[in-house]
Amino acid sequence: MDTDPRTPRPAHPGRADALTDVPGLRVGHARRTGGGQLTGTTVVLAPEGGAIAAVDVRGGGPGTRETDALDARNIVQRVDAVVLTGGSAFGLDAASGVAAWLEEHGRGFRVGPDPAQVVPVVPAAALFDLGRGGDWRARPDAVLGREAIKAAAGTGLGAPVAQGNVGAGTGTVAGGVKGGVGSASVVLPSGITVAALAAVNAAGSVIDPLTGELYGEWFAEAYAPAGGGRARRPAEAEHARAQRRLAAARAESERRSAASVRPPLNTTLAVVATDAALTRAQAHKLAGTAHDGLARAVRPVHLLSDGDTVFALATGDRPLVPEGTEGSQDPAFGVHLEAGALNEVLAAGADVLTRAVVKGVLAAEGVDGPGGVFPAYRDLYGPGQAGSEGGAGAP
User: d(Cα 97, Cα 245) in Å, to the nearest integer?
Assistant: First the structure.
């Protein structure tokens, strides 16, 4: 067996198989349920000093805040937090609570000689979950945003990330099936970590209607030992029963007035992050290619009724090409080496986002409430469900 420490290791999930495997990143969730509420907010908190950030918006109906600040032509270089929230455009108010917390802790874009003179730049994106708990006016606000960032700040480095019906995934639905927050990571042979977190909320479907398998399932299977496994391929009869239950749930949701928005409005949100030292332009490329991972897991995607948005964060702890790498001192060949290393990061970003979507759907719990009936994938296809034709289950 080769024990040479210089021998590259194969790619493998990080310790938590989550966004927090990128050193310095923390994730916090806050939500509101019951009493007509079914919504929440997720905050990704960068390490002290912030992280290089970029965004790529491909859905036709986005709701965002401070995304123009991430343009490489503009002055802001780093951000301290990214907010993913429910509540459509109303929910963007959650970012105000995050910005207030950051200011209180002296974090933000320095605008004066006093260290307290900072303006936190808090990019945020919202998904549509209005009315899914029954109350159309239930949506995240600044108080909920503050709760989410305090939860992030209170976690330890490398802590596991709660998934399923948490944070921005509280009220998410994908093609009539309950969505949720999912997260995944990979450590490349170079030692660079690439990770993703997604709040799965799509007008399209995550399920292949011919087989009942999740479109992105192959990636979950490939990393099953650390990623918690994959859903089995349903038997034909089980798939037929699941399709009938899903059709009945959709019909019932249409009868419940708070969920009767037509066509359905959604938006899947994601953060893809790495500890590689990326420029702002390279981070923008990472955000863009990560959308390929979303397209593998959701079909169709990037519709006019979606606002699909992917943020990219780079903490810069690891150079793309380590010093002393053969050929790196040659300017022409060095560019070639950097392009090759960046390609590995870009490909990994798409892969981990696909797996994050799958994990979010598999972790979700079904909801049956005044705003609609949204069965979870495991309600439809999970063990012990084959003989059941009942409701979706409680949140």
Answer: 40
Dihedral-angle region of residue 335 (phi above 0 means left; psi in -120 to 50 means alpha; beta otherwise):
alpha
Confidence of residue 219 (pLDDT cuts 50, 70, 90): low
Identify residue 193 by its one-letter amino acid code: T
Question: Strand 81-85 relative to strand 37-45: parallel, antiparallel, unpaired?
Answer: antiparallel
CB 79 within 8 A of CB 46: yes
The CB density around residue 58, as the number of other CB atoms within 10 Å, is: 18
**Tokens 């021998």 appear where?**
7
Is the whole-model pTM more than 0.85? yes
How does pLDDT run across 76-124, given as a tens digit for each residue?
A: 999 999 999 999 999 999 999 999 999 999 999 999 999 999 999 999 9
Give CA separation, 181 vs 41, 70, 110, 243, 251, in Å: 11, 24, 33, 23, 25
User: Tokens 């093609």 — which residue?
Assistant: 175
Q: At what angle do helices 280-297 and 331-363 cross, to 10 degrees?
A: 40
H helices, E strands: number in the chain = 9, 17
Distance CA 356, CA 20 (A): 13
Alpha helices in the chain (DSSP H): 88-91, 94-104, 142-153, 217-222, 224-227, 236-255, 280-297, 331-363, 377-381
Nearest to 293 by CA among 272, 278, 314: 272
pLDDT per residue as tens digits for the range 21-31: 999 999 999 99
Specify which residues 85 forms β-bridges with: 41, 126
